[in-house]
Design a protein that fits this description.
Layout lengths: L4 E4 L3 H7 L5 E4 L3 H7 L12 E4 L8 E3 L3 E5 L4 H6 L1 H6 L1 H8 L4 H4 L4 H5 L6 H4 L16 H4 L17 H4 L7 H9 L3 H9 L5 H7 L3 H4 L12 H14 L15 E5 L3 H13 L2 E6 L7 H4 L8 H13 L3 E4 L9 H7 L2 E4 L5 E2 L11 E2 H9 L9 E5 L3 H12 L4 E6 L10 H9 L3 E4 L1 E8 L4 E11 L7 E3 L5 E4 L2 E4 L3 E2 L30 E3 L2 H4 L4 H20 L55 H10 L13 H7 L3 E4 L3 E3 H4 E4 L2 E3 L7 E7 L5 E8 L10 E10 L2 E10 L6 E2 L1 H7 L6 H11 L11 H15 L3
Parallel strand pairs: 1-3, 2-3, 6-7, 6-9, 7-8, 9-21, 11-19, 12-13, 12-19, 13-14
Antiparallel strand pairs: 4-5, 5-26, 10-20, 15-16, 16-17, 16-18, 22-23, 22-26, 24-25, 27-28, 28-29, 29-30
Helix pairs in contact: 11-12, 11-25, 12-15, 13-15, 15-25, 16-24, 20-21, 28-29, 29-30
């Protein structure tokens, strides 16, 4: 056990002076101290080093004023229960305090302690941190598919970034747009995706979707098919381009040149134009799109998709100057003289060298795909060997096969299991008749002086990872017959184009990570020239973040971004939903391909997913939030009474105080302490009722609780406050039921209807449907008690 210092403070000023750092813990005393010292529940890299005792502070008081009553946060619950003033004007609060555990506990427990207690969930509270849940910086909520008898019936709440979002290089809030889809709001879902990805129709087809690897559902059955959902939404965006690609509301008055019309350049162009910049995109090719157009086969990414995206961006006012090379005739300096800023996104177009004998006799994989896209490439040979193991190698091999090569074989230096290509793409290649020779390294391209006749290879022995050393057994070399060798072993950056900038290893441009500015003023860079050869989604992320940096550099205004940086989650007022379908075992949508005999070079292989399938897939999404419940008895009473809390930093309305957070159930900052609770005066014709259902009267947390506050005029309800406890991660105010009751005359039928309305949006987990019925029953009884 670490040494823990103990400090007792006597004034609020002293308290504020010691509340610094993340290893300080203010405590009320009693079992809280023991729980902190012997903490074997919380997963933390910052163990408590200093306990701050609040017991000597003058915070144990109950003071009535003209506007209400003030209750110190260190006031014992038993004093609340016995106080005449509270029982006279705010009996709801006293009744809630009276239901807390046994008299012995109430003699020790404080108002502040009850309001700020941690959530009720045995996965969270289980000793030795055996369940590393979201509340403790974990990845999942074990209760969602585990034992959830006492958990939320009103959805879950975000307490951390979801696994799918963490797995996305572009920080896409996937669970947010899945929630919109569950409400059949295609437009809303598309807007969330478009907010961070203006070319989603592309990524929906070619992104590796690492988000799916980190999907929490994979621990239950199979991951949600984000790829198919993203493709559907991306196509919706293209079909409704006028709703998304809009002209800026005002012009900034600055001109930006973008060099390179690939995914990073196109993304930056969209955002910079939407911010109000005058944007011109330059590219060496005759059509914009970069590798999207020239290196990805049409059967994977149709060229009309790329053309439609560029057309939508062009309609925003972005200008394209094509067939312009970035070289000695069009230098960085010439761009800089004509524009206020330059964004370099030229990609990595050179093929990596293997340094094997007669390498020059082999074709470049990138050049091969480029020529196919331009319809300048015929069958490369009858017997083709493709060297490489990535997605480009798969594209080269399959394209060669479809061009008419009788035999195509992929040569890869490591075992099949270590190939970087997508598993589904390798399967498709093999299904179409391409062969694989793994664990063989190329040594020499064999020629007869005029043409290729073979490839000399040798078997290899590799370690267990792609980065491990590969041993080549040259004493066992052999020659494979072929009439064409194509190298698809990766891309490199052309140093000659950027040698005037500061570079790091592999000729990557050095940038400021905040602004994306290079070593030259007003010159920015992103995509492969910064990352090295990477995925399209990583290029998109660079283009978006670079646009943000350029905006801030030229305007001096810091952009506040929902999903741009730091991967922070905002507090959501309403609970997040999940569909009942997610609790049942189910299979994801498969990528549907046209029949093998119908597949061609220039037509798309895959079939568009249908809306019904997409909505079903959204229903499979867990929405990955916490379903632990707020266990405070005082919390719903405090909200129903329109109370507020005074802390060492601010005043907070009770309705804004409770929140689902990592290691917390309130919005309190780590070094913020509740000083006082204030309850305003209530209407003279006020009826208050607190009803709590639990299994063992003297000691249990609520299974469900109801705090009811009605203002009556005779039998007519003039206004109503209904707050349920222990039904979701924060207290739940039944706004619809309150609205229904207003103006109604008390009756059994009215009470029953209000209960139905109040619980209309309740959604049970696997084991807690009974809680919905209990909540309805005690809400109805509470209302009827006002008669």
């Amino acid at each position: 056990m670490n040494k823990i210092n103990y400090t007792s403070v006597k004034t609020i000023e002293d308290l504020e002076s010691v509340l610094k750092g993340n290893t300080v813990k203010p405590m009320g005393g009693g079992t809280d101290i023991l729980g902190t010292i012997y903490d074997d529940i919380h997963h933390t890299s910052n163990p408590v080093e200093e306990l701050i005792s609040l017991k000597d502070l003058d915070l144990s008081y109950i003071k009535k004023s003209n506007g209400g009553i003030h209750i110190g946060s260190m006031t014992k619950l038993v004093d609340v229960v016995n106080n005449e003033n509270i029982n006279d004007g705010w009996n709801l609060f006293a009744d809630a305090a009276k239901t807390v555990a046994s008299p012995q506990i109430r003699n020790m427990a404080t108002v502040g302690g009850n309001l700020c207690q941690e959530p009720r969930c045995w996965y969270y509270r289980y000793p030795e941190d055996q369940f590393h849940c979201m509340r403790k910086n974990g990845e999942t909520c074990p209760a969602f598919v585990g034992n959830n008898l006492y958990h939320s019936i009103f959805g879950s709440e975000k307490v951390c970034t979801t696994g799918c979002q963490k797995g996305c290089p572009n920080d896409t809030e996937i669970s947010r747009y899945m929630e919109k889809l569950r409400a059949d709001d295609i437009q809303g879902a598309a807007e969330i995706l478009f907010d961070v990805n203006p070319i989603a129709a592309v990524t929906g087809r070619i992104c590796p979707h690492t988000c799916q690897s980190d999907c929490s559902r994979s621990e239950f059955d199979e991951s949600v098919s984000v790829q198919n959902v993203e493709r559907y939404l991306g196509d919706y965006i293209i079909e409704n381009a006028d709703k998304f690609y809009k002209n800026p509301k005002k012009e900034i008055g600055k001109k930006i040149a973008i060099v390179g019309a690939g995914p990073a350049g196109l993304t930056a162009a969209y955002y910079l134009r939407s911010f109000g910049f005058d944007v011109t995109v330059f590219d060496k090719n005759n059509e914009a799109g970069g590798m999207l157009r020239y290196s990805i086969p049409s059967y994977r990414l149709p060229k009309d998709i790329v053309s439609k995206l560029i057309e939508a961006i062009e309609k925003m006012g972005v200008k394209f100057v094509l067939g312009t090379k970035f070289d000695k005739d069009k230098t960085l300096e010439s761009y800089s003289s004509d524009f206020d800023g330059v964004f370099i996104a030229i990609g990595a177009w050179n093929s990596a060298k293997l340094s094997i004998e007669n390498e020059g006799a082999a074709l470049s994989g990138l050049d091969f795909l480029y020529n196919v896209s331009e319809k300048k490439q015929d069958k490369p040979g009858d017997n083709v060997l493709v060297i490489g193991g990535g997605n480009v190698a798969m594209d080269v091999a399959l394209t060669a096969k479809r061009l008419g090569a009788k035999k195509v074989t992929i040569i890869y230096r490591r075992p099949k299991e270590l190939m970087p290509a997508h598993e589904w793409e390798l399967k498709q290649v093999l299904d179409e008749g391409v062969s694989l020779r793994d664990s063989f390294a190329p040594l020499k391209v064999v020629t007869d002086g005029n043409s290729t006749t073979g490839l000399e290879v040798a078997p290899t022995t590799s370690g267990e990872t792609r980065n491990s050393k590969t041993e080549i057994h040259k004493d066992k070399k052999q020659e494979l017959e072929c009439d064409c060798v194509i190298l698809a072993t990766g891309q490199v950056i052309d140093k000659a184009l950027i040698e005037n900038l500061d570079l790091e290893k592999a000729n990557k441009i050095v940038i400021d990570p905040g602004t994306y500015m290079t070593s030259k003023e007003n010159v920015f860079a992103g995509g492969d020239v910064v990352n090295g050869p990477a995925t399209v989604v990583e290029a998109i992320a660079h283009g978006r973040r670079a646009a943000s940096g350029i905006y801030e550099h030229f305007t001096g205004i810091k952009l506040i971004e929902k999903a741009y940086a730091d991967k922070k989650v905002g507090r959501e007022k309403d609970p997040i939903s999940y569909g009942q379908g997610c609790l049942q075992n189910s299979d994801p949508i498969e990528i549907s391909l046209i029949p093998l005999e119908d597949r061609k070079i220039y037509d798309e292989d895959s079939i568009d997913p249908k809306k019904a399938d997409i909505l079903n897939e959204a229903d499979r999404c867990f929405n990955c939030g916490c379903v632990a419940v707020n266990a405070s008895d005082l919390a719903p009473a405090l909200i129903a009474l329109n109370g507020k809390l005074i802390t060492t930093k601010r005043e907070i309305l009770a309705s804004d105080f409770f929140s689902a957070e990592v290691k917390s159930s309130t919005v309190l900052d780590p070094n913020e302490v509740v000083i006082e609770v204030f309850l305003p005066d209530q209407d003279k014709n006020n009826f208050q009722k607190y009803w709590k259902f639990r299994h063992r009267k003297s000691i249990d947390f609520p299974v469900v609780s109801v705090a009811l506050n009605l203002n009556l005029k005779g039998d007519t309800i003039e206004s109503a406050k209904i707050v349920l406890g222990a039904v979701k991660p924060t207290p739940f105010e039944a706004f619809e039921a309150e609205e229904f009751l207003t103006g109604k005359t008390l009756s059994n039928e009215v009470a029953e209807k209000a209960a139905e309305i109040g619980l209309a949006n309740a959604t049970s987990l696997a084991e807690n449907k009974y809680k919905i019925n209990i909540a309805k029953a005690i809400l109805k009884r509470s209302i009827m008690a006002a008669q």
